[in-house]
Amino acid sequence: MKKIYLKRGKEESLLRFHPWVFSGAIGSFEQDPEEGEVVEVYTSSKEFIATGHFQIGSIMIRVLSFEQESINQAFYEKRLATAYDVRKCIGVVDNPSNNTYRLVHGEGDNLPGLVIDIYGKTAVMQAHSVGMHVDRMVIAKALKQVLGDKVENIFYKSETTLPFKADLGQENGFLLGGSSEDIAIENGLKFHVDWLKGQKTGFFVDQRENRSLLEHYALNRNVLNMFCYTGGFSFYAMRGGAKLVHSVDSSQKAIDLTKANVALNFPDDPRHKAFAEDAFKFLDNMTTPYDLIILDPPAFAKHKDALRNALKGYTRLNQKAFEKIQSGGILFTFSCSQVVTKDNFRTAVFTAAAQAKRSVRILHQLHQPADHPINIFHPEGEYLKGLVLYVE
To answer: Element (H or E) spanning 158, and its range?
Structure first.
């Protein structure tokens, strides 16, 4: 392996087992590595400290191990087996009412740059680093070895998650199998998974437990699901006994998928309607009295430079909801922006409540589920924040 040497004093974060090495910490290269290549990291005094994938950019090395070891199929089998054991421990594996879960969550499973979601017999694999893209076939073989007959298809979906400057020519497609079966089950409810063109890996697995919580608040309520995407919160609300459920998304394709998912679970149910419309425009013009509103927008901030505008966006959106929701209503509101902290988000929502002049109580503070674990040495992995609020 090629060696990379850090500047003096720049090993401190690695000594705390943080899995990233930033470009500003690099002192010198023994030889210039290729993007995606596995390299060894040494201190300025030439002491080994970590092994990881090299990539041009701000995060230059994503650490795979703090030991000197080969990054091969056996390595990936070991990491994947550990990840699988964690999912068995939390009860999402071999569950007859749920065949959908996240098997690998990047740094949270000590595999930075890799995401694997399981939908029945299909695993959808996504690379967020060049190194994981380079290793995709080895990872696929390791995954099959660990899961055996539990996985028959492995779909690779990384066209939009890798740096375009790397010019990798990546394409989405099956690495194993090729099933056209796209229906998965979550807590007994069915949904279509759009592996090819859908967002993320085709479904937002991270809201499973929060959707389940919403079901318990839906009885006899008028529900508005904003930014509905595949309609997950909508059909949970319907199962929970909502009087009516309206789903809104600016994308017609998302609305079509929502309708298909609702039809899978509640065919010809007149309680549901879907609207392809801008969220702010819909909130401005709405006439239906809603007493349960879900705000689950896409990330308003992808990097720190966008944080200020993102917080303004969250404040504006939540203020609209506070102004429109009925007295005694319940608001589920979320941020999936990694750079927005829990305190940032809470401040934005509190500001919105004050500007709307509504009295608000916190009923629940929400986060990502256990199959999206957070590496204790990598607090940046805590990205999903949510609040359930009672509005007088």
So the answer is: none
Output the six-digit token pair for 84: 């699988």
- For residue 186, is pLDDT > 80? yes
Report residue 364 as tokens: 């629940």
In a domain, 197, yes or no: no
Strand 153-156 and strand 189-192: the pairing is: unpaired
Task: For residue range 289-319, list pLDDT tens digits in order.
Answer: 999 999 999 877 667 777 888 889 899 999 9
What's the CA gap between 344 and 359, in Å, rounded? Answer: 20
Q: Which of 185, 210, 242 is the last residue of a domain?
A: 185
Residue 72 CA to residue 63 CA, distance in Å, equals: 15
Do 243 and 104 reside in the same domain of the chain? no
DSSP 299: P
Question: Buried b vs exposed e over 41-75: b needs ≥16 C-beta within 10 Å?
Answer: bbbeeeeebbbbbbbeeeebbbbbbbeeeebebeb
Q: What is the pLDDT of residue 166?
A: 61
Helix (H, G, I), strand (E, B) or coil at 79: helix
pLDDT higher than 80, residue 121? yes
Task: Determine the Cα angle at 84 with ends 60 and 154, to 5°.
Answer: 75
Transcribe 261-273 into DSSP letters: HHHHHSTT-TTEE
Question: Given this model, what pLDDT does residue 300 score?
Answer: 76
- Condensed to tens digits (0 to 9), the pLDDT of residues 334-370 reads 999 888 889 999 999 999 999 999 999 999 999 999 9
The whole-number pLDDT of residue 164 equals 64
* Residue 188, Ramachandran bin (φ over 0: left; ψ between -120 and 50: alpha; else beta): left
The domain of 220 spans 202-391
Buried b (16+ CB within 10 A) or exposed e, 166-192: bebebeeeebbeeeeebebbbeebebb
CATH of the domain at 145: 3.30.750.80
Structural domain contains residue 86: yes
Domains of the chain: total: 3
The answer to whether residues 260 and 192 touch, using CB atoms and an 8 Å cutoff, is: yes
Q: By the 8 A CB rule, do 84 and 143 touch?
A: no
pLDDT-derived band at 194 (thresholds 50, 70, 90) equals confident
Go through 82-99 and write b for each residue having 16 or more CB atoms within 10 A of its CB, e for each that does not.
ebbebbeeeebbeeeebb
